[in-house]
């Protein structure tokens, strides 16, 4: 008698992406969006990678996703101090673990799609990392939008505490104006010191 192994179909699907990997200041953000496997994916028709759409459109998608009762989402912000202490890759990995935990994702019943080179914990045997997934997989695009909007809102919220840097404008990215401000005022506690070597003492 031959025994055949049949892989159980996932009950839930999660899309994960990060935002803010490259800025000189502020946290890196990891966003995850979870739906049941029978969810009507047409809900996401027209969604795009967060970098390819305007802030207004990102905000609209954020509100729409947040308001849909059949969708769950989670975002984790990993601080600059953790990035300096652990490195950006482990920090993103920590964020992935956190959002999966917050969504109560069961590795046995959940398929996880991730963008670029990021991966879910090994316990999630049903996972796939997709190059340019943020443009190819709607759930990954959704995760990217939740991550990006949450991070941008956070940077705008803390900007008044550090008015000399203009964080509300560039969100911590290394623009010419931001770099000049760091030269003039030095880094603050929300700057990633490990990202500043070479032009800040």
Strand content: 15-25%
Report on the biggest sheet.
5 strands, mixed
User: What would you call the shape?
Assistant: globular
User: Which class of secondary structure composition applies to the elements?
Assistant: alpha/beta
Widest sheet: strand order? 3-2-1-4-5
Gyration radius, rounded: 18 Å
Distance between the termini: 71 Å
Q: Give the topology string: H per helix, E per strand.
A: EEHEHHEEHHHH
Mean pLDDT: 93
Q: What count of helical segments does DSSP give?
A: 7
Number of strands: 5
Low-confidence stretches: 1-6
Helix content: 25-40%
Task: Tell me what you see in this structure.
The structure is a single chain. The protein is of the alpha/beta class and 201 residues long. 37% of the residues lie in helices and 17% in strands. The protein has 7 helices and 5 strands; from the N terminus they run ββαβααββαααα. The chain has helices at 55-67, 80-86, 88-102, 133-136, 138-158, 167-170, 176-185; strands at 12-19, 28-36, 72-78, 110-115, 127-130. The protein has a 5-stranded mixed β-sheet. α1 (55-67) packs across α5 (138-158) and α2 crosses α3 (88-102). The longest helix has 21 residues, at 138-158. It is globular and about 60 Å long.
């Amino acid at each position: 008698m031959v025994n055949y192994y049949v892989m159980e179909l996932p009950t839930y699907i999660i899309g994960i992406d990060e935002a803010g990997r490259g800025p000189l200041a502020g946290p890196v953000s990891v966003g995850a969006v979870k739906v049941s496997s029978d969810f009507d994916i047409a809900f996401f028709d027209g969604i795009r990678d967060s970098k390819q759409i305007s802030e207004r459109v990102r905000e609209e998608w954020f509100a729409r996703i947040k308001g849909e009762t059949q969708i769950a989402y989670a975002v984790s912000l990993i601080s600059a101090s953790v990035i300096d202490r652990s490195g950006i890759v482990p920090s993103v990995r920590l964020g992935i673990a956190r959002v999966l935990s917050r969504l109560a994702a069961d590795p046995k019943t959940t398929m996880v799609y991730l963008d670029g080179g990021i991966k879910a914990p090994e316990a999630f045997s049903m996972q796939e990392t997709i190059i340019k997934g943020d443009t190819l997989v709607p759930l990954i695009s959704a995760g990217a939008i939740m991550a990006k909007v949450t991070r941008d809102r956070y940077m705008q919220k803390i900007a008044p505490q550090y008015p000399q840097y203009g964080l509300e404008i560039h969100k911590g990215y290394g623009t010419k104006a931001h770099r000049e401000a760091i030269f003039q005022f030095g880094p603050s506690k929300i700057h990633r010191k490990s990202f500043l070597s070479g032009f800040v003492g």
